[in-house]
Amino acid sequence: MHADIVFTNGEVITVDKDCSIMEAVAIKDHTIIGVGQMKEVGGFIGENTKVIDLEGKSLLPGFIDPHLHLTIYGTNLLGINCASPEIDSLEILYEKMKKKAEQTPKGEWIRVTSFNENAVKQKRFPTIQELDAISAEHPIVIIRVCNHTSIANSKALELAGITSKSENPAGGEIERDVHGELTGKMIENAHMHLFNVADYSADEIKKGLKLASQIFVESGITSLHDAGSYGWGPDILQLMKTSIDSGDVKNRVYALIGSLTDSESFIRHMIDESIVTGDGDEWFKIGPAKLFTDGSSTGPTLSTREPYDSDPTDTGILYYDQERMNEILGEAHRKGYQITAHAQGDRAIEMVLNCIEEALEKHPRTDHRHRIEHAGIASKDLQERMKELGVVVIPNPAFMYVNGDSYLEFYGDRVHVMYPANDYLEKGIPFAFASDTPVVDHNPLLGIHAAVNRKTISGQDAGIYQRVSVLEAIKAYTYMGAYASFDEKQKGSIEVGKLADLVVLDQSILSANRESIKDLTVELTMIDGEIAYEKQYSKRK
Fold it and tell me: What is the DSSP string of 177-227?
């Protein structure tokens, strides 16, 4: 049998059980049919086989990001995105917003995304007065980079029915000044509820999905686990599925049943419809039922057992009490779902572990692969319980690079057990690295860089004991992502019979300086045996 494509002369990082490094790979249709040294794979080359000389560059399994927000990332590209480095002050941001207002019909939304108060010269949030001065006729919302906090103008609050007399929602805060007047700042569940009126249209969402998918493909992300968005979850799933069927979304998607605005109703709807984890196919599959437990690590609003180092009066925000969480996720477990929860602080992680423990005691199940998303401050006692319960953890190594300086301020010595990959390795706790984009950059090579170095963007050490090797980091961004969705027999490593989802880098990652891994780039992405993205190659036969 002759192959359609054969990659030769490469550093083939197979991520098989032996972490084998090979030279060549053969592809037929959508499947890997040969892996080995050149003399073993050369027999697959026929007259019509395309041969790609890798010239010593790395060939990896396609990256699998097990926690990102596909829809949110995509819709962020439609408005004013503060991820742009040129927006380094409130003045520049306001100028862009004024121009946007001039081009936008009155009454339509002006949305600003990925705002970080620490990235602008003023080191503060906008005020409601400043936003009202930009426009009183357009609803305006500025969304913080964590997607847990926003600032709205008076028009937006009016449309949302929010006044100075409105009560705070459970797990959220409508901020007021010393006089009891609205500041426009919406925190946690208050921010989530605002998006009941500030959400995007179906056409906008489909446009965003297409844009996001192409960017992810160019970064080597062949599969992703979508961790939820604003809006009514079933509608988002349908738009996602339609976009995959049309070819606008090229990545394989494992869809978590969670929403930033109402996870509980979303989970209940899916249970009532008898749609459960694993339903779907290799392109679009239903994932775990997911709740939000606490806030963000940079807010900081995550829920801790001890007060923040930066504020002895603050221990963060919880969305649910233990009884309610156990009831919602416990029922999902009983119905056959994989279950998970966003849990950043140690108090929140403890609650999720309590929930999983009770669910398994009442309704035992082997190989459940229940997850915890992020597990930010994973203290040693919590790690022991993760191991005991068979939990899969989804940490975010790039958070330590991008946010580590803030973490040192907020949490002090607790950084040594934040996203503790090496501890997980030593204890045998399964984990898969994720970006949580758009919270930080989606680039898996940045995540690998951060996991290998454990230094902050300013160069400070941030729990260097938690460093892992390059091969271990690659496994956490490939095979373990497949494991977290029960797909390790189909993808996640370069082995005969698996799906031909592959990535070629611009050089050898194993020979690269560990402090420069983030500067490597993707030269080619293959999905299902088809080249979905390619830079120019110098040699072809």
Answer: -TTS-EEEEEEEHHHHHHHHHHPPPHHHHHHHHHHHHHHHHHTTEEEEEE-
